[in-house]
Amino acid sequence: xxxxxxxxxxxxxxxxxxxxxxxxxxxxxxxxxxxxxxxxxxxxxxxxxxxxxxxxxxxxxxxxxxxxxxxxxxxxxxxxxxxxxxxxxxxxxxxxxxxxxxxxxxxxxxxxxxxxxxxxxxxxxxxxxxxxxxxxxxxxxxxxxxxxxxxxxxxxxxxxxxxxxxxxxx
Length: 170
Hints:
Elements: H1 2-14, H2 24-35, H3 42-51, H4 59-72, H5 83-91, H6 99-105, H7 112-120, H8 128-135, H9 140-151, H10 153-156
């Protein structure tokens, strides 16, 4: 899988275009490899899972979210991805398959704060809003998320935009 992906990257680079995001099959292979990474491939595999899977709701994102959730909940282990990183990476997925996992992890004794931080900047939560609001009555981490959403910290804490060039070199 890694050899084929590197070949794909080289072919696309020769055309001056970026590689395609990982497919579901490629993402599954990366997740399998991360459980027992080949020598000297851990960082590359981490990069592929973190940066080369489309966020949101496609089959590859589903596999990524399932793998990261299993790491966070201790159902799977990886020497290359810690449970804390798994929760942080779930938070980088924008919304979709990661949301329910993050909501469930709010109650986790050691990862709840990390889940709250990740969920606080996730906007595409769909029906999970009601679940977080309900949990906020009894769970401090859910209260943190609701407060962050109310304050708009996802927007306020973003770096200021840079100069806009619109392709005109200005």
